[in-house]
Amino acid sequence: MTTQRYPIYRPIHKAMRNVLFSASQTVRLSDFGDDADVQEALEAVDRMISLLHEHRENEDKYVHPPAEARIPGITAKFEEDHVEDISLSNEVQGIVGQIRSASRDERKALGITLHERLNAYIGIYLGHLYREETVMQQAMWDHFTDEELLAIEMEIVANVPPPVMADFLKEFCSTYSSDEIAPILGNIKANAPPEFAQFALQTAEQHLPLRSWEKVKARLG
Question: Lower Cβ count inside 10 Å, N or C end of the chain?
Answer without folding.
Answer: N
